[in-house]
Amino acid sequence: MSNLDGVNIGKGKVGANRLNNDRRVSAIIVGSPAIPGLAFKETIQFFGLYDAEQNGITPAFDEENNVNVYRHVREFYRNAGEGVPLNFMAVAQTETLKTIAQDTAGDKLKRLLIDSDYKVRQLAIAFNPIEDEENPIVHVDGLVPEVFDSIPLAQGTAEWAYDQFMPTHIFIEGYNLNGLASVVPDLRDIENVEATKVTLVIGQDWQYAETKTGDAQKFADVGTILGVCAAAAINQNIGDNEAFNLTDATKQAWLVPGLSNHKTNKEVYAELQTFENKGYVFGVTYPGLAGVRINNDHVCAPVKIDSEGNMNEHTIAYGRVMDDCARQLRTAYLPKIKKTYPVNAAGKLPTGVRVTLETIGDDIFADMVNAVELSAGKTTVDPESDLLVAKELKVAFNIQPTGVLGYLNGTINLKAKQ
């Protein structure tokens, strides 16, 4: 018999959403005086400056308290653009960068990440120290000790975040710099520390800092760097000269770059290359190019490559690409967990099934290659995976990142003939 409907085409099921992947979602945790109407350790999400202002974070709040809270949020949105999700938490000024970064109680940085539904991709820690004339800040090797000591603690929390399936890059405010570039620690060579998920920011908008007094004048513009990172593609250097100009003359922003010792770049010009070599992040100007750019996308780790060609995540961009791949692969493979698969006579997966499972990862890599986020990627399922007893699928993912033109090294000559 025939069916009088002629043709029946049903709708297939839709798998995990591979487009639900907003790399701009960010967070900031700030040591602050009490903000009216906003409790300490409470996570709130903003989508623009208006939201922040409605929650008591205003220019007047910064001015009356001589702090930089609104400043960081404003700079984030100036660079990331309105509409980008920013998850915000204020903590008491009695906290330190170390207690915030380590978060032993799980009610600060970790709470912020969890409250943000695991979606945060980049996070900044900012601090407004309480001024104490009787017990002024004592520096060690040109840095506030808690700034330097917070680096491995932030790395530990970033590793915890990765294990909880919410990989995140952390920017730390390197406030109150007070030493020559020759004295400060080399962040690319910290003994027993490879903080590939941590970046220390020491740059500031010097002209804005002139409006502050005391320790508030020696802040670092970590909100600026966070905003640029949110605006950047995952494989893009945040110092991309063509894409990211920090200067906005109409808003009097970043007209004069400086460091968190509240000295202009011109005052410490001879030291800037050493700060660059040691992995610090700040604003720079280039002769022949108007405006201010970020010097580079450093992390607090050395550059490593092993005998098999495996590299560590020695730039922010490399780390963001790895994190994004991990998120996408987890999302794509989760629906396949606890499904039933046939095995061959040896109790292993047949070739056809292995290829199907490999295609899931390869399709993600193909999309990223087409978007120029990766150069190449390959998924390989171990044919010896035991799905009968161990019930474990062993998979290897290898990705080749895109390259970055760090600097141009050339020669120029006068020729009598071409």
UniProtKB/TrEMBL annotation:
InterPro entries: Phage_HP1_Orf23 (IPR019694). It comes from the Bacteria. This is DUF2586 family protein. It comes from Flavobacterium aquicola.
